[in-house]
Design brief:
It contains twelve helices and no strands. It has two domains: 40-146, Alpha Horseshoe (Serine Threonine Protein Phosphatase 5, Tetratricopeptide repeat), CATH 1.25.40; 162-271, Serine Threonine Protein Phosphatase 5, Tetratricopeptide repeat (Alpha Horseshoe), CATH 1.25.40. 72% of the residues lie in helices and 0% in strands.
Length: 271
């Protein structure tokens, strides 16, 4: 019994010692990594801006910082965010070569995935660098990581509408505006934009629903605009129009739906 007890003490002591050594080793590795990081980031941030700056600046992989705690990763992201802004400023006013920009953007957003501003700035900077696909993929990642942000999907919708070459770009842009409009606290104009794009893209049924939402939630201007658009989208036949209006009842109060129906059905009776 005593022998097992002594052995147990030795075993526990050995485990404690190993644990302490592991913690110490982790601290040392962390300090070394932070020392290296401070040197690299400090050099990049404090070096003077030059028009002939190297477009292929060294940017480490996000994997290098995976073992750091979340607070340290955020601090690293903040440091590289400043370095990225400086890098972009140097080259946008100089040689307009942005070889390292995609790596900067990915590093900052991977280490600080909730940093909304980095996605927005990064997307426009990448577009300026001729990296349209990178900008698109960045905003898609940003929207997935930040479901509480309406700015990221709205920006994505805008960029698709302006820059995409797809034949169905209006519908794709409208889809992202719809996602932005669904975020609590998003601006009232987003459903209007989505509805306009759906109308332009030929998505009649979805557009009718979106304009119905605009009528239900918008101000006087928005409701007037919704009435005009709905009148053009709805079928002219009275029975077909009445049927097409029915899905809108779920989007608004009974009084709003009664008013809307009276106006749009009354238009057909106006000589």
């Amino acid at each position: 019994m005593r022998a097992r007890g002594d052995g147990g003490k030795r075993e526990r002591g050995s485990s404690v010692g190993a644990g302490r050594r592991g913690v110490l080793r982790g601290v040392v590795v962390g300090l070394v990594m932070l020392g290296c990081l401070a040197g690299v980031v400090g050099f990049q941030i404090t070096r003077p801006a030059q028009s002939g700056a190297d477009p292929a600046a060294f940017v480490p992989s996000p994997k290098f910082f995976r073992e750091l705690s979340p607070s340290f990763r955020t601090a690293v992201a903040d440091a590289y965010w400043l370095a990225m802004v400086q890098y972009y400023g140097e080259h946008v006013e100089g040689d307009r070569e942005f070889d390292a920009l995609p790596a900067y953007v990915r590093l900052v957003t991977d280490l600080s995935p909730r940093f909304e501003r980095a996605y927005l700035f990064g997307a426009f900077a990448l577009l300026d660098a001729g990296e349209g696909q990178e900008a698109y993929e960045l905003l898609v990642r940003g929207a997935r990581r930040n479901p509480q942000s309406w700015r990221i999907p709205a920006t994505l919708g805008m960029l698709i509408y302006i820059y995409a070459g797809n034949e169905d770009k209006d519908a794709l842009a409208a889809e992202w505006y719809q996602k932005a409009a669904a975020v609590p606290g998003s601006p009232d104009y987003l459903p209007r934009v989505a509805a306009e794009l759906l109308t332009k893209g030929g998505e009649a049924e979805e557009s009718i629903l979106m304009w119905g939402q605009v009528y239900a939630t918008g101000d006087t201007y928005a409701r007037d605009k919704a009435l005009v658009e709905l009148d053009e989208l709805l079928p002219p036949d009275p029975e077909q129009r009445k049927e097409a209006l029915q899905p809108l009842a779920a989007l608004m109060t009974p009084q709003q739906f009664l008013t809307l129906s009276s106006i749009l059905m009354g238009v057909l009776e106006t000589p």
